[in-house]
Amino acid sequence: MAGKANTLTARAVANAKHPGTHKRPVRIGDGGGLYLQIAAGGSKSWLFRFRLREKDREMGLGAADPEGRSGGVTLAEAREKAATARKLMREGVDPIDARQDEAEARKAADAAATLAASPRTFKSVTEAFLTDREGGWSNPKHRAQWEATLRTLAFPALGKMPVERIGTEDVLNVLRGIWTQTPETASRLRGRIEAVLNFARVRGWREGENPARWRGHLDHMLANPRKVKRPEHRPALPWREMPAFMAAMLKREGVAIHALAFAILTAARTGEVRLARWREIDREQAVWTVPAARMKARKVHRVPLSPAALAVLDAVAPLAKEGESLIFPSAMREGAALSDMTLSAVIRRMNEEAGGELPRWRDAEGRAVVPHGFRSTFRDWAGETRPEGREVAEAALAHAIKGKAEAAYARSDLLEKRRPLMNAWGEWCGKAPAEVVKLPGAKAG
């Protein structure tokens, strides 16, 4: 950093350009470790380069704004920031670490202020819990996993609830839908909910026993996650019965009806549908993007939306409040998601109304079908009637490719190859006359 300082002028900063002979950014020194960096596209930013503890480091100081009109950093401000960084270095402090510490302190103060000014909901208490534990995580990824699990799986049902009102049934409503599907994830989620509620009790924000505790409580209501085996074959409706089933179902009203229809038309898991939010829908491209945290394989899954699936979204559009809101909200509690049991109840009621010794909607063995079984129905239909092939059908179900050689070539999610498949599936399901009833308000099913 030795050498002449303050060699740049505001005019020189404004007039500086990238030579255009290569794509690497160019840097013009001002002295004292401060550089103006110009990207190949012409954007300008400030950079402070320094050496500390025998390591060369670089710290961005913000976008360059020679005239101070665009909200960026002027030359004078950049020099002041560089001088502050040099002062910290003389004190043996890494300026990058100091900036991170300052940002974390600001975040903690903001979280505390937000918590003090708002009701102590599960969401706000979770944020306070995560902030209080800053520095105690084994790595940043661990914290991110905690937050993602709670935000994706717990917040839809519990996020807006005051922590003092959360009871056992509320916790079970979150866990039941995924306990047998992804027992490892469900067990981790339970432990994290328990930790947040313990934190709330220690802070004096709730009293009584923790409704998410395992021993002597939930262990009497849920199977041991280590012993849970997901059923190999869930009762699935024969694919030739799908048009009649959809026609019968869509004569009914309610959010759960539309949620189940959307799950069928997208071949998605019910947990992915129940927690779907409007921000995940791209109407222009007709694509639903399911976040990795909600997928069994922990990979983002894009779903091409058929006209039939888009019609379901149109039907529930009156319920939409904002991009963060659930597409299929529960009518029982503000901001909560439907439960898996609510979707199962749709089929149960249809069978009860049909009467008979055997369920009207049943598999080949006479068992009443279940929501998850429609994925098998879709797979059977695709295998027997469509030309796209196994790879495309498996991609539509977001199934992991088992063979190493096959997986090595699976560089694409085959979105556009899946689109005609899903369109044809929507057309098949709609073969019988059916009308999707638009909702002026919400009903559970």
TrEMBL record:
Protein name: Site-specific integrase
Cited CDD domains: INT_P4_C
Pfam families xrefs: Arm-DNA-bind_3, Phage_int_M, Phage_integrase
Keyword DNA-binding recorded: yes
GO biological process, one term: DNA recombination
Domain Tyr recombinase: 232-422
InterPro entries the UniProt entry points to: CB (IPR044068), DNA_brk_join_enz (IPR011010), Integrase-like_cat_sf (IPR013762), Integrase_catalytic (IPR002104), Integrase_DNA-bd_sf (IPR038488), Integrase_DNA_bind_dom (IPR025166), Integrase_recombinase_N (IPR010998), Phage_int_M (IPR053876)
